[in-house]
Amino acid sequence: MPRFDLPADELRTYRPEVAEPVDFDAFWQSTLAESRAVAEPPRLTRVDSPLSLVEVYDVEFSGYAGDPVRGWFLVPADAAGPLPTVVEYNGYGGGRGLPHERLQWAASGYAHFFMDTRGQGSAWGTGGSTPDPHGTGASFPGFMTRGIDDPADYYYRRVFTDAVLAVDAVRSLDVVDASRVAVTGGSQGGGIAIAAAGLVEGLVGAMPDVPFLSHFERAVGLTDRDPYNEIVRYLAVHRDAAETVFSTLAYFDGIHFSKRATAPSLVSVALMDPICPPSTVYAAANHHGVGAEVVEYAFNEHEGGQGLHWQRQAAWLAARLAG
Amino acid sequence: MPRFDLPADELRTYRPEVAEPVDFDAFWQSTLAESRAVAEPPRLTRVDSPLSLVEVYDVEFSGYAGDPVRGWFLVPADAAGPLPTVVEYNGYGGGRGLPHERLQWAASGYAHFFMDTRGQGSAWGTGGSTPDPHGTGASFPGFMTRGIDDPADYYYRRVFTDAVLAVDAVRSLDVVDASRVAVTGGSQGGGIAIAAAGLVEGLVGAMPDVPFLSHFERAVGLTDRDPYNEIVRYLAVHRDAAETVFSTLAYFDGIHFSKRATAPSLVSVALMDPICPPSTVYAAANHHGVGAEVVEYAFNEHEGGQGLHWQRQAAWLAARLAG
Amino acid sequence: MPRFDLPADELRTYRPEVAEPVDFDAFWQSTLAESRAVAEPPRLTRVDSPLSLVEVYDVEFSGYAGDPVRGWFLVPADAAGPLPTVVEYNGYGGGRGLPHERLQWAASGYAHFFMDTRGQGSAWGTGGSTPDPHGTGASFPGFMTRGIDDPADYYYRRVFTDAVLAVDAVRSLDVVDASRVAVTGGSQGGGIAIAAAGLVEGLVGAMPDVPFLSHFERAVGLTDRDPYNEIVRYLAVHRDAAETVFSTLAYFDGIHFSKRATAPSLVSVALMDPICPPSTVYAAANHHGVGAEVVEYAFNEHEGGQGLHWQRQAAWLAARLAG
Amino acid sequence: MPRFDLPADELRTYRPEVAEPVDFDAFWQSTLAESRAVAEPPRLTRVDSPLSLVEVYDVEFSGYAGDPVRGWFLVPADAAGPLPTVVEYNGYGGGRGLPHERLQWAASGYAHFFMDTRGQGSAWGTGGSTPDPHGTGASFPGFMTRGIDDPADYYYRRVFTDAVLAVDAVRSLDVVDASRVAVTGGSQGGGIAIAAAGLVEGLVGAMPDVPFLSHFERAVGLTDRDPYNEIVRYLAVHRDAAETVFSTLAYFDGIHFSKRATAPSLVSVALMDPICPPSTVYAAANHHGVGAEVVEYAFNEHEGGQGLHWQRQAAWLAARLAG
Amino acid sequence: MPRFDLPADELRTYRPEVAEPVDFDAFWQSTLAESRAVAEPPRLTRVDSPLSLVEVYDVEFSGYAGDPVRGWFLVPADAAGPLPTVVEYNGYGGGRGLPHERLQWAASGYAHFFMDTRGQGSAWGTGGSTPDPHGTGASFPGFMTRGIDDPADYYYRRVFTDAVLAVDAVRSLDVVDASRVAVTGGSQGGGIAIAAAGLVEGLVGAMPDVPFLSHFERAVGLTDRDPYNEIVRYLAVHRDAAETVFSTLAYFDGIHFSKRATAPSLVSVALMDPICPPSTVYAAANHHGVGAEVVEYAFNEHEGGQGLHWQRQAAWLAARLAG
Amino acid sequence: MPRFDLPADELRTYRPEVAEPVDFDAFWQSTLAESRAVAEPPRLTRVDSPLSLVEVYDVEFSGYAGDPVRGWFLVPADAAGPLPTVVEYNGYGGGRGLPHERLQWAASGYAHFFMDTRGQGSAWGTGGSTPDPHGTGASFPGFMTRGIDDPADYYYRRVFTDAVLAVDAVRSLDVVDASRVAVTGGSQGGGIAIAAAGLVEGLVGAMPDVPFLSHFERAVGLTDRDPYNEIVRYLAVHRDAAETVFSTLAYFDGIHFSKRATAPSLVSVALMDPICPPSTVYAAANHHGVGAEVVEYAFNEHEGGQGLHWQRQAAWLAARLAG
């Protein structure tokens, strides 16, 4: 049935206790430190485009282990910085695509950085440009189980590190006001935004939209839809691996990042979302470090609020910056 | 199988002879004349939005029979016209949505008008605002069979008339250079663009993307996907109505409009498109009055070229205007 | 799972409190009064058919706003009236079809009137003949959301009025015993029968079969099957419209009509019905004004009891008339 | 695609040469002779029903090997015979159901006999009452492969024999005019009607509707839908059995029965029928012994012409009887 | 959702009270006695095969009512008996196939008998060779409803009797150590193993794997997957037959056999199994006469533990035999 | 439809001309030479198992670039070598699983080596143990598009090299008769076997079963099923990559390997196979260097001949060895 998860009133107060690894902070501190140690300054290349109102730059910055990661950087033409800036992460399977595909933030006067997701970018849209140069053990097709037998090897260790270093890179640019950077993204991009917001200091806000990658022990088996279901299928083959798998995932659970967030957050949740079930979204939002504002879309599936929600994000962010 | 239609080399020369009604031109001349006779000047209302680089207007213009039709009109902020202008029509089931959802043309320096499709706007996206105040006989759910027993009552008579009068309305605006107006749209919007290009004089170009509404006698029964299949299901109930139905559809076939086109056209076609089969697209393109340039997407379904195709459209239109 | 709704013992006592509009009765009184004011006497045309045991008439009567509505009227050949009479409404998407398709009541000695549903009749069967001459705002394909932003414009305002005026029309015929008229129908036809039974005085009984159109707030989102799901999909686009939509639907909820029923009722319910979930059926039945008898089909989906249930209806109605 | 079979103009002349067993006639002569030798007179039991215009009888007659087979016999109340009579066979999986479910022929003044199909009657509708007391070898679920390794054991040997003896039984009744008996049925019932028409002398006509059980070598593997596909799945397991299976089926192919028909026939075919592909229907019709009239439903799947087709049957049969 | 049944902790203690027929034991005693009375000694035929390490015998033994039933008997080449022996039953729709398809037990030093399931063997795999010479009343395609209106006629009465007499037959062989016979099987084979273990004395163990045929009143309607759903579909047609059907099934419920088991058991259960829901498996296991050890596969559907579970079975059985 | 590919008689002579890269042989010579240069001797570890008739060894050998690759090596217990040996490759997504899962060859007196497929082993079965330590560019989930923009980086370069070095490793063992080694495998394993047979000298035979990885230009777009369809979906995103992709795939096409084969081959093909369409299998078989014997399964999908086909393989290989 469309309303398959908890009733709406239970969702709103759903705040499960989920154990976190004792070395969670140490794991991430060392991970980030190691990658920051080998990072080089971002390289921006101006790109020709029909977009006369916006300047477009092809960016390459140092991600996890110094791996080159790509993204698009857009600024209003002839803008005098420093500008408030939005860093955006993408949904599962998509790549950074083409620069004219996401113009709202730049058309609203922001600098906008859209990060490619390593290895992804071939499932929908117009493609990605960032390889993931790290091999993997036996994994189920997709990205959810790459390296899942060890937090050090897990795919999202690299992606979340990329996400944090994307903020570092953006903040290093003259046109960017480093004190007014927000992170956002939908679905996987929302999950990455939650992680970034838990790992980066001094953000002005985070706006995860129908976020993925949260409350794995509930999500895995609650829905039969990928990507969470990739983990079910992996465990259906690796029948003795559940403990190992969930131990790894504990280092990547949005709940733990959400607790550590220091910037306000605007979260969206769709109550009929079969891909990112609403209880998993609320689990992260209700644990937020400084309180998250949740916007509900009662009759939507994973598409959530779409363009309507962007309006709410734009208003919320403008108020944050004005405040 | 994904390649279900004719082989690629046959597609490229597919140019079927399809009979047209003897009074095709008379039908459309009188239809347009009657509606133009009751048209009032468009009303534009400036809309607040976060889009600091673009001015947004909510437009109401007179469509078929003087019915009010809505649309969004976007121009670069502080633009000194007259500007080259793109009029865009929407895909099946969608509404005009929200003004920030389609920014490419305005961000590229064009005036851009996006027309709502009457009665539609509730199947996907963020909604529409234009009623269809005309009742209907017994019809299959959807829009394809509304009034299909008589060309005078058929739903697309009203929609195509709206499309033509949208160009009239846009041309009446000071900021628009009436001699440099192009029409475009994807899927149903592409079909409407073909119709508009066959009915409007003096366009600078037409850019139908994976267009619908062409070569009905082949399309109906070739694919089992809606919207063409709505007609199959109607005929499965109204078992004696085939002759009547195809007589009506003959007034709305993209082939006949394409023959009458006087402006160059850039058409896209996806060779695995199960919704708008490639042979039906080529049938219209290969009959084009002054020759249509076709861009093939060999491994795509109905999504076609997406953002990549917009780049090609932008380059093509810029060349047209420069030429 | 097949048993997706409440357990059987909870269903049997399920009687939710559902708020009704304060002007519910006023709304329907004025609606009916206005349409009755412009009604003309029904016109019957004898139709040739192979059915030598039954006389067939094509009927046109005045429905909502005087709109002409069609139906088939069958009586046993050479019957001396006045006869007990069954008025029947149809399921979603169907039309009145052909007169020989529903012979049970006439073959059992009843007069039988089968009403066409305006605008429908093109989704299955052999067709309908009644247009819906009223236009509509932006609506999702289907009939559930036509005019759903205002009770005055809602599609079922017109249909329920047609249903009541069908009884008026039938009662005006000499061969009909106006004091012995029952209403029936399956699915949508059952929902219409519940409405008619709540709005018409002096019926001898009502026999809704797996009725639709009841307890909308539970139904919408409980099932992922149309027609209830048409409303979900509408609300997924019109994300701010839920309050308006449910305010409109409150004027059309079978629960409120059932409360007002003055004639006994025989209701069927299928416990695995994914289209008209059993809890929504019981919600109406358990609120019935004078008590409804419920027949359960424990292992059926929406087909319910089919021919077996007609036997139960025939026995129940005969007992009612004998009583 | 909906039009998956041959183009319409090829269908109309499709008349494949299909080899028949040399002992085809001998097989059926001995089969019928053996069963007729043990047949007893039919037993009719008057059944109470609400159907005041029609008398209903529960019939048990001797089928294959003397096995008791059931059916419903309906005659207009108080009819003075002898009456023209229609013998009808049922679709796959269905049983004779309840007597009020098929009233058209009796309401039109015919005697009507509806035969139960042995062993079937549990897949849809309201049930059957005739066991198949003969065991079976390893078979795929369903009826298509029961005893398929030997014509003597094949399930349809028993069913076709039942069908012929049903005509014998009906003709023995006083109220029936034995010289004016027609056979009919839809889908499997149509296939049985073709077989009966090839095996019974002196019928006034046959009216198979979208008939099944014809041109097995083409049908098996042309469609992925049951029941033909039951044979595919059997052969997918019994990989060495194809020759045996098709040797058996050759005794039951509608083409061979159609050739032997001596009474005129009215056949329906649906051009988008994925269950009984149109080429298999035309194969039988185009081989008909005295010429079959074919009614095409161009946009229908297996539902064919439904109630509209019954009108055509009724007119055709009346003309036959009048002629 | 994948976790559709009870939560894991409730499953582990789920032990429903299910009424059993008062004459359950009498029914089975007389059933077995009658068939044993007409049993003849098994006939073994040595079969050539490439399997040089294993001797293969084609076995025919007397099953229910003396009907011949086939199986494969494999022993290590040149083995000096008496050997511990595993008797195995097959899953739904499969046949005994080919002797080299199941080599684990023989390759581990056991004698291994794999029984064909009468009438089955045509739905997957490489076929079966055992007819079911008993006819049937109206039944839904498949085997679940054959003879379901009377325990004496029910299909599984014959199958379970075959299973017991298979053990009798195997025990009569010189190479078999009659005191060290275990039974096993997956899915339907697991259900048969439970039945055999409840009806046979002196087994050394039973190893049902994701067993079927248990706790019918819960299973029927809990899952929409065959084979349990065959019963739902039968009852959807035979709407008055539920009491009769469940009365019959009560003689075949694994719970009652499990209670009577005298040998230890190793049961597997898959917590996401939509075909044999885990609660129905636990219902039997938790009622086991001498305690059953349950192995859970938390993320598997009906495939359960596959090869991994065989390792656990082999270790468990070796320990049993060593103990 | 089930018979979706070419008619059977066209299939049997289907032998398309497919261009091969001019440096095909050079590419593979250097690839193999480089990996052989860094190969170390295989390491075998005896594994405890219940399989008393068979000795089991866990093998690690040097594959592509010296990467460690795992496999199971089984020999009849106490076998005096050298033995004829079968090297087997696995189907897509599977791992080497557990050693008792494939016993036929060892039970028939052969040494048997079953190779793990790097990176795979998590989609079905009981798992794999071989990582693929090489990273990848943007790829569609699955393995088909990993590194597809360059033959040097393509995933199957590594897998095919592993396959060849597996034969090297096996031949180095004392118990193996290096002159009597055959290769086999189903689906992907069949495609790998074809590649190995084209790259390895002196094999005694190759037995690819329903092989994958052949005639890519036809396969890609002929079927909508993975894994071939992974390439379609990649190309649907990377719309300009078709030429590059097919240039890469040309180095991995089974047709080119088949041409180079020097040992006889027994190939199976299933005529209704939607995953490895029969024309793509015949394309390779009909180009075989010394002639391939093809076994057709006319009514099977991708399961092909299953256990029946193993019998044919066993007989064919025995005859080869005897010859």
UniProtKB/TrEMBL annotation, chains A, B, C, D, E, F:
Active site residues per record: 187 (nucleophile), 273 (charge relay system), 302 (charge relay system)
Domain Acetyl xylan esterase, residue spans: 1-318
Gene Ontology molecular function terms on file: carboxylic ester hydrolase activity
Any Pfam family the entry gives: AXE1
InterPro entries: AB_hydrolase_fold (IPR029058), AXE1_dom (IPR008391), CE7 (IPR039069)
Annotated positions binding substrate: 92
Biological process per Gene Ontology, one example term: polysaccharide metabolic process
Name of the protein this chain belongs to: Acetylxylan esterase
Species of origin: Agromyces tardus
